[in-house]
User: Fold this.
Amino acid sequence: MEVVGLTRPVILMVDDDEKLLAAVRRTLSGSFDFVTHTDPEAAFAWLVHNRAQIDLIIADLVMPTLDGIGFLKKAARTAPTVPRILLSGNVSNISLREAINQAMVTRVLAKPVSVAVLKDAIERVIQIKCPAPKPATATGISPEMISAAIDRADFRTVLQPRFRASDLALCGSELLCRMPSLEKEFGIDEIFEACWDHPVIDRLTSQLMALMIDQAPRYRALMEDAASVAVNISAYSLRNPKFLELLIRFYEKMRMRGVGVTFEVPERQIQPDDHDLLAGACRLRERGIALLIDDFGSGNNSLELLRHEVFAGIKLDRDLIGGIMTDFLDDAFVEWIARVCSKLGLSISGKGIENRQLVEKLQIYGITELQGFYLGGPVSLEEWEAAVAVPLSASG
Assistant:
C-alpha cells in the first residue's frame, strides 16, 4: 500500500490483479497517491476510517468475496461525495441499471485497460469533481447588458435541423438564440454563462417562447409531421415553480398548434442532489414533457444524473463526439453510454457532426438522433422557408 501524501489526489483502487496494481503504482505515482487493495473487504475497512481524504474510488467488477458493484454500493453509502469508476472485462454483462442507480458510478472502463487510458479517466473525473471557479467579471459581460439588449429587442432566433440517425430523415429542429449586438464583442457562450443563474434568463426565455408561439404555424408548414422543436432552458428556470408553470403552458400552446416541444438543460448546471431542480424535472415528466440533459459528458457526475429517472434522454457533448475518432476513452464511453440509454429506454443524441465517418460510427452505436454542420447548419426561419420554396418555384 502506498503512503498517502498531502497534495496529490488520493485514489483508492481495488482489484485482485496485483500486476495491474503494481503497474499503476509504478507508472502513476508521480501524479496521484494510490491506496491499493486486492481484498475488497479490507479496502472497505480502510475507506471507513479514511473517507475524508479520498478523491476517487476505482474497483474491478469481478473480485473475491464482494464484486465491484457491491463494493461501490457500500462505498457510495459511506463516502457519497467521492466519485466512483468501475472496471470490467465484459461491459455488456454488467447490470447497467444497478451500476447507475445503486453503485452510482461516474465512469465504466473496459478491461484490459492501459495505464494511459486509466490516467486520462482519473484526470477527467477529478477535474469534474473540482471544476475551476467561474470568473465573475472576466469577460466584461453582465446580466444588465443582456437585459438592455432584450429591451431593444436585440435578439433573434435560428433553427438547427435535427435528423433521425437511422436514415438521416428530418425529425425536428433546435431553437437557438442569437444576440447580434452583444456578439460583436462577446461569444454567445459567454453571454449565456453570464445570465444562466440570474432572473434575466427567465425573461429572455419568456420572450423566445412568445415568439415561438407566433411562429408555430410556420414551423408546422416547414417540418410537417416532423414539427418538433428543442428549446434550451436554464437550471435556474427549472427551480422556479412559477416559471415551470409557464413552461407547461407554452408546451400545451405549441402542441395545440401541431408542434412538439422538448426542453434541454446543460449538464454542467445540474447537481445530482439539486432537489428543487429535480422536483421541477419530475413535474415536467408527470405532464409528459421530455427534458433532456444537454452537453452530457462535459461535467458533474454524468451517470449519476440518470439514476433519478426524470430525464427523457441525453445529448452528448460536442467535444466528446469530436473525440471518438481519435480518443479511445471518448470512443469507449460513447459506445457504452449508448448501450446504457438503450437499456434504460432513453433517447441519445449527438451534436457537432462534421463528417460522414462520425455519422456511420454513431449509427453503429445506436445513437437515435444527430445534428451538426455536415447535416445542416443553423438558419433563420426565413432562410429555411426560402430554401424550401426554391424547388417549388423551379418546378412551376
Notes: The longest strand covers residues 156-164.
